[in-house]
Amino acid sequence: MTASLEKDDRLQMGFKRPSREVQLIELAVFLLLIVPSMAASFFILSQEHPRFMAEAILAIFNDLALLSLVLYFIWRNEEPIQHVGWTFNNFRKEIAWGLILFLPVYFGANLLESALHTVGLSAPTKLPSFLVVSGFTKVLSAFVLVTVPAVAEETIFRGYLILRFRAVTGRTSAAVLLSSLVFSVGHGYEGMAGVISVFSLGVVLALVYLWRKSLVAPIVMHFLTDFATIILQTLLEARL
Description:
mainly alpha; single chain
């Protein structure tokens, strides 16, 4: 029944979805590009403390490059941009849902991380130096740093990877879990407690995306989570 509906949707929208094999190859190439650099986050704490501005610029350009790659894939395959969640119907309502869901999800993720740390899983006692902001210029850079990933990473990990993992595996549940797993790999600097917490956050963001059929609410939640962690928390700590 579902396959029949998807076929009807494709015919009505006037495009041909790439084959499962093409999507598998595309997914493999994309993961080859993204996973090794993300996995490097597990080793970042053992290196000399990187400068915030340099890391911010690298992260911003990296996310923009990956976003461009995803949009290229979608354009090349002649797929509607809505397939990666770029739908803006009821824009204000979606923003409101993001605001409403942010607090319980944010505090829930923090509680989970604290609980995992309590039972012995690794977690840093403070933010890595490359995420600590101070000074007006760094605060502005940090604002861009939390804005760009909110848009780019939600498009990549929720919109694109769920779309492709679902096509390859045939299961939405597997797509949610696999996309969240890839999302968590890039947070190795937070320790295993943080990685598991980020994985759980990824699952929640994926469920919100599938529920709302739009990336707007997940983008708002992602932005506020990073803003609270990177900017608000460090500024409050600096005043104490």
